[in-house]
C-alpha cells in the first residue's frame, strides 16, 4: 500500500554512477534488484543525482486519512531497482492492509524525460483499476510530482525530510487546481536493515 492505497506514491529515481549506494545495489534490466550487483547507470549525473539514494529496500509505515478524518495504519515495504539498463526505475509496493503478511499491491515505472526535462512516474494499482501519470522533480529541497486522478482532481506526491536512511512521503489532493490541498496519506519510510 503506498502512502495510501487508493493513491499511488511518487517515486522518481535517479541513477548516479558516482553514488556508491546506487552502483552497489543496481540490477540488470528486467531482473529483481541484486544488492551486490555493479551496474553503470545511463542517466546524466546532474539529472540522476536527485533520486539515486532510494535504490534498495525500505520499510514503510502507512497512515491513510479517510474522508471521515479517521486514520488507517498499515505496514509494508517499497523496493526501488534499476531497469532498462539503468534508464528507468521500478518501484514495487507491499502492504499488510488485507493480510497479516505484506503482499504486493502496486508498482511504478519511473524515468527521467530528458526531452521535457522532468521525471515521469507511471503508477499502476491493478486491484483498483488505477493508472496514474505524475511528473516533476526537485522543489525547495523536496521531490514533488503532480498529476491528476481519474476524476480530474489534482494530485501531489512528495518526498520530504529526506535523510540517508529515511524520508516521509505525502500524497495530497486538490479539487481547486492547487489552491488548497488535503492530505490523503503519509508514509514514514526507513531503509531496511
CATH topology: Lipocalin
Order of helices and strands: HHEEEEEEEEEE
What is the name of the CATH architecture? Beta Barrel
Strand order of the largest sheet: 1-2-3-4-5-6-7-8-9-10
**Mean pLDDT score, rounded?**
78
CATH superfamily: Calycin beta-barrel core domain
User: What class do helices, strands and sheet pairing give?
Assistant: mainly beta
The poorly predicted ranges are 1-46
Multimeric state: single chain
How many distinct folded domains? 1
C-alpha-based Rg, rounded = 16 Å
As a percent range, the share of strand residues is: over 45%
Number of H/I helices: 2
Secondary structure: elements and pairs:
Elements (H helix, E strand, L loop, with lengths): L19 H6 L19 H4 L7 E10 L5 E13 L4 E8 L7 E11 L4 E8 L4 E10 L2 E7 L5 E7 L5 E9 L7 E10 L2
Antiparallel strand pairs: 1-2, 1-10, 2-3, 3-4, 4-5, 5-6, 6-7, 7-8, 8-9, 9-10
What does it look like?
With 193 residues, this protein is mainly beta. The chain has a single domain, classed as Beta Barrel (Lipocalin), CATH 2.40.128.20. Helix content is 5%, strand content 48%. The protein has two helices and ten strands, in the order ααββββββββββ. The protein has helices at residues 20-25, 45-48; strands at 56-65, 71-83, 88-95, 103-113, 118-125, 130-139, 142-148, 154-160, 166-174, 182-191. It has a ten-stranded antiparallel barrel. Strand 3 (88-95) and strand 4 form a beta hairpin. Mean pLDDT is 78; it is low at 1-46.
Short description:
The protein has 193 residues and is mostly beta strands. 5% of the residues lie in helices and 48% in strands.
Amino acid at each position: 500500500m503506498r502512502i495510501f492505497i487508493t493513491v499511488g506514491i511518487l517515486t522518481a529515481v535517479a541513477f548516479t554512477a558516482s553514488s556508491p549506494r546506487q552502483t552497489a545495489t543496481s540490477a540488470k534490466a528486467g531482473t529483481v534488484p541484486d544488492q551486490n550487483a555493479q551496474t553503470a547507470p545511463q542517466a546524466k549525473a546532474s539529472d540522476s543525482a536527485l533520486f539515486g539514494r532510494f535504490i534498495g529496500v525500505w520499510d514503510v509505515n502507512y497512515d491513510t486519512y479517510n474522508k471521515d478524518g479517521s486514520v488507517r495504519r498499515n505496514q509494508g515495504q517499497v523496493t526501488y531497482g534499476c531497469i532498462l539498463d539503468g534508464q528507468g526505475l521500478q518501484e514495487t509496493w507491499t502492504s499488510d492492509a488485507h493480510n497479516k503478511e505484506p503482499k504486493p499491491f502496486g508498482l511504478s515505472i519511473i524515468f527521467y524525460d530528458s526531452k521535457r526535462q522532468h521525471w515521469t512516474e507511471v503508477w499502476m494499482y491493478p486491484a483498483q483499476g488505477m493508472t496514474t501519470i505524475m511528473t516533476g522533480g526537485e522543489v525547495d529541497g523536496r521531490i514533488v510530482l503532480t498529476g491528476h486522478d481519474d476524476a480530474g482532481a489534482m494530485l501531489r506526491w512528495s518526498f520530504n525530510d529526506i535523510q540517508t536512511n529515511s524520508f516521509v512521503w505525502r500524497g495530497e489532493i486538490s479539487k481547486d487546481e492547487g489552491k488548497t490541498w488535503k492530505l490523503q496519506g503519509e508514509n514514514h519510510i526507513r531503509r531496511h536493515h
